[in-house]
User: Fold this.
Amino acid sequence: MYNLSDIGVLKKLLFEAGFSFKKSLGQNFLVNPSVCPDMAEASGCRGIGAIEIGPGVGVLTTELCRRAEKVVAVEIDERLRPILNKTLGEFQNCEVVYGDVMKLDLSSLIKEKFGDMPVVICANLPYYITSPIVMTLLEGRLPVESVTVMVQKEAADRLAAEVGSRMAGAVTVAVSYYAKPSFVRKVSRGSFMPAPKVDSAVIKLDILKAPPVQVADEGFFFRFVRAGFSQRRKTLCNAVSSFMGVPKDAVLSALKTAELPENTRTECLTMEELAAVSTALYELTRKGGTAE
Assistant:
């Protein structure tokens, strides 16, 4: 068994495989021995299935394998194959699939590999592609119970923020529409090799069986939210009108229907208020023939 938290062991494995880090893939391998056990435990994978995105050298993967019934790790970098063959060789409940998670049919993969087994997702995500991967996992409405991810601390604060707070943004609303976020732990920059310039954090997204609010049209709702947060210094009316090309009178009418003042700013609205305004605006623009 390899002690993958030992920098000497890790460097030897990488050297033997002729491996060099690729900045384009945002590769930073964990060397803090407490982080991966915490992540694996927080994911709730005991006795069920687990999908890992980006196993790297297998530090988190080994912890998942010790708890889960079955683990499928998705790795984009084929150069890690000889390393993972060594570090995961002792685990009979693990399979590595090489490919880009953004291009794989994850629903089909889950059905093929896990059948009817409950499944969770766990991942140490590259900073540069955090939001796209998180949204791909959530928007795909995958048959999973939760998504536990380690991301840049700033991104974690946004993803797990309360809708209506100053930290909230469009991605906050999207996450809260599909899941209930919670903070697991902070991870210092010194926990990685090579060390990044910022700290990280682990958050868990428990997938909701149904959205917390009802909206007239999901596509329109998310376009409306993106528009509202696109220009934070502007009022919701001006931002939405400018971004979506909707007449200001329609936006003001929608605000009035939702019983909100004309100078309302998007960042101050709760999920319920965002849903109310977007639904009212959708109905107005549809009647006017301008709804997308």
